[in-house]
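BUG: 3D viewer hangs when loading the predicted structure for this chain

Environment: internal workstation, default settings.
Expected: structure renders.
Actual: progress bar stalls at 90%.

Input used:
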Amino acid sequence: MPKLKEFADVKEARSEWQSLVKQIRHHDKLYYQKDAPEISDAEYDALRRRLEALEAQFPELQTPDSPTQTVGAAPLETFAKVRHKVPMLSLNNAMSEEEVRDWDERIRRFLGLTEDEEIKYVCEQKIDGLSFSARYENGEFVLGLTRGDGEVGEVITENLKQVRGFPHTLKGKPPAILEVRGEVFMSHKNFKALNETRDDEEKFANPRNAAAGSLRQLDSSITAERNLQYFVYSWGEVSERLGNTQSDYMKAFAAFGLKTNAHVITLSLEEMMRFYEKRYQERPALDFDIDGVVYKVDRLDWQERLGTVGRAPRWAIAHKFPAEQAKTVLEDIDIQVGRTGTLTPVARLRPVNVGGVMVANATLHNEDEIARKDVRIGDTVIIQRAGDVIPQIVSVEPSKPRGKHTYHMPDHCPVCGSLAVREEGEVARRCTGGLMCDAQIVERLRHFVSRHALDIEGLGEKQIEAFWRDGLIKTVVDIFHLPEKLEDIESREGWGKKSADNLMAAIETARDVPLEKFIFALGIRHVGEITAKLLARYYGSYGAWIAAMQQLPKGGEALEELDRIDSIGPKVAGAIADFFREPHNVNIVHALAKLLRIKDVEAVAGNSPISGKTVVFTGTLPTLTRPEAKARAESLGAHVASSVSAKTDYVVAGEDAGSKLKKAKELGVQILNEEEWLTLIEGKK
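Structure tokens produced before the viewer hung:
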């Protein structure tokens, strides 16, 4: 256990206890729910061990919901939840041979054994993946769960079926009820292939995160594409006994067609240490991650006698491998811009050997991470290979001279010079110059010609990348100048006169574009098809829309007006304003408008008494649902807004109408109940 500072009493120690609990819960949520840890396993283990030591010194601090007494994190609301028939426990960790020997001594004392009496231990490699529970009834797989908080797990039945080699039906004669526990993981080869298909800011940090993110997909077809693997190593509810030892159960599982984790039976601590050392030496050659070795008492009657303490069994322990670390100098921090505009800081290091690999670069994740660790250019830093894949900076070496200046993320994109903004509630800073930024342009071009945007057939991913690489198109405007390069296109490999003519025809067809598709095609952050349609309906014409958009960067009433459009909140309004704050974005929009024939929104129900009027609904209406009322109003040509202003024509108020009704009265806006509203729009007397 880590040595604690001296505390005068429990009152003085409570502040540190509260801080540790808060930190651990934060990291548990990131690890178990979001599959996006901010710190290394070694850093996390240090926090937890410090909490354990503090509670050992002051037992009165320990509460039933302390991280030392609980497992994982609460299941996500997006998944169905099921209570485990038998709780899924976690394991205590040993960080040294001495701690393993202490554990063995505690077991002997508990069982009343002398040093000369044999204890058989099962030794397993500790797979670094996502824990699962799989329930079989009469040999058929019926339910898959994540660990969750140890008591309740998330349902992942269909996803678990997609794991490579996972049996849907067991062989032989399994018990009527058999619940096995194991680990889903991803090989290094498949992890590398997966990351090559993802944008820089979307890359998984290590195979464990990739496996967890893949298994916890709402769409099981995505899981099927990820080439996951599994091992089983334990069990929960079983309707009949399969033997008297841990190893008996592993043999039975293998006979049923389940893949079991590699293990050996040992009789002495020296044999355990040899197994540990062998696995540690073999670790770099494995195609999957292991982060230690697990030791378990083999005899089940002894396991039952030993029982559990807190969140972990007494009869098992995880002997963790030491983190592979090295010290070097941080020489610079570069900024990489991903294909969707995210700015990611990358540490440029004085090359150093970490676990047999020369490391010259390391991720710094984001500006919050830099500030938390107070990393500065010129610092001596401790480097660690996270999950044996992506190096990261663990901390600054405090005994060495510090860099003089605190690092600040740039507020402009290093690629195109556009403003780089960080939205409230997000850790990423993003470039706003998407239509001109070379780092993003290929992705923007793909979006612009996609089926739901301008739908230019013949310009797929490969063609876009090739045309951009060879200089035929640099911005979306250049697409409409491709007819001037017809001969060049016809002569390209894989092209000919017919395919080139077809492309020219598709480009010509795309010149006639509805306003809503044009807005969507621009790729403004947070502006999807629905928002684009709302904007198009609200403004009606390209002229009215662009005039309003050019006022947005000035803020004030212009931004408030956008915020009032139904379903467009401050976050979306801010993103649109950021886009139009960049002059080159505006210039490209104007250039496109000259090349395209942008169709105004057709006048809907032009003779309707509410055509062109702005309507706000508030409260609960007697017979109409809110979506139904909005849809009917829009079909009659009205603009449905989410807030009341002096520009509002009608407020339709139901029961429990609150602040919107009050504001309407203050502004003198005409207020209608549902009956009056229906009379107005249906012409009833």
